[in-house]
Amino acid sequence: MQFPVVLVTLVSIIQALALELLWGRITEADYLWELDVESIVAWGTITVTLLGILQIWVLYSTLIIGFSWRPSLRDSVLPFMLGIQEFMMVSLINEQFSALWLYVLASLFLFANYIAHISVRRARAEPENEPFFRGRSPATWRDFRWPFTGIAAFCLLGMLYTALGNPDWVALLAIVAANIALAIQTVSSRNLWRAILETED
Question: I need a surface site. Which of 4, 9, 54, 170 has the fewest CB within 10 A?
Fold first, then answer.
């Protein structure tokens, strides 16, 4: 089946476009080189956006290389939805921090976890993946408490930022929280990849 190859090619093209847009945003933004709170927040949004783009690539690489699963037509559409969210995040990077950027980040977290869940659920049904899933219980709502906590935190920080009149300290707090959340996600992805590689038939 050629679909996995087509899918990873499609994802790589979308990620490359997102990185190109991000690089263009950096080179065009003179305010980034001013040492003030606004530039620090802007650099924070850039690092989160970059980590988010990389995490989407790692997600699809893990799903396609690590598991055998039967894709559906929906799987060829979902990367475009993720790409739109990534492009929106890049376009919202500006000198003045926007609460909308946090809402887009929350939606990206939600959507990526949805894709991971439905793909791994289908992978569990394939006999080729039985060695990995042996002894591992199916995911429950409890397993998603950390992603949902992060999503709720981003939304609450966005509302707080707007309600308090856009204070810099809320923007800084939001950026720190987002970077920590992406760092945790990176560690989680690394642990999953190691678990896949260490699986013995």
Answer: 9
Query: Token digits for 102?
Result: 């946090």
Q: What is the Cα–Cα distance from 81 to 79, expressed in whole angstroms?
A: 5
Report pLDDT digits (tens) over 155-196: 999 999 999 999 999 999 999 999 998 888 888 888 888 888
Question: Torsion angle of alpha carbons 97, 48, 89, 24, nearest 10°?
Answer: 90
Structure token digits, residue 128: 């080729």
DSSP string, 61-118: HHHHHH------GGGGTHHHHHHHHHHHHHHT--SS--HHHHHHHHHHHHHHHHHHHH
Amino acid at 117: H
CA–CA dist 201, 198 (Å, integer):
10
pTM over 0.90, yes/no: no
Residue listed under structure tokens 């920590």: 180
Query: pLDDT tens digits, residue range 22-61?
Result: 999 999 888 888 888 888 999 999 999 999 999 988 888 8
CA dist 150 and 154 (Å) reads 6
Written as one letter, the residue type at 155 is C
Q: Among all chains, which residue has been given the structure tokens 């690590």?
A: 66
Q: Which amino acid is at 60?
A: Y
Q: Can you tell me whether residue 199 is helix, strand or coil? A: coil
| DSSP strands (E only) in 37-170 | none
Sign of CA dihedral 196, 76, 113, 22: positive
Residues 6+ apart with CB under 8 A from 137: none
